[in-house]
Design a protein that fits this description.
alpha+beta, three-stranded antiparallel beta sheet, two-stranded antiparallel ribbon, 2 helices, globular
Amino acid sequence: MKGYSPKLPLTLDPNDGYLLTHNLKEVVAQNLKMLILTSPGERIMEPLFGVGVYNYLFELNTIHTQIAIKERILQQTKKYMPFVQILQIEFMDPEQGGDFEALGITIRYSIPSINSTDILRINLE
């Protein structure tokens, strides 16, 4: 069966060799997640690629840190995934039941070209 790209993490599949993404919505979700999790300098030949959210993991979970992450997500998405429109970025608030030892981000986004809206949740511990 044909697919757009391998699903990450790579998983063997007896039919295709590796599990594949089979629609554009899956590809965009996977690429957005990789953009957010990749640290600048980590991607070969693209030293500015990536939000580097792991770099914020041990920062205080303050409004200033959240603004810095949000701005980085918006900037990187605009540059590397201009076909995605970020609608909303929310952070888990430790004072409202969130975990003080984790960083949780919920991103609501749309893909206007295929008339699709989705939510990406990232929880780092």
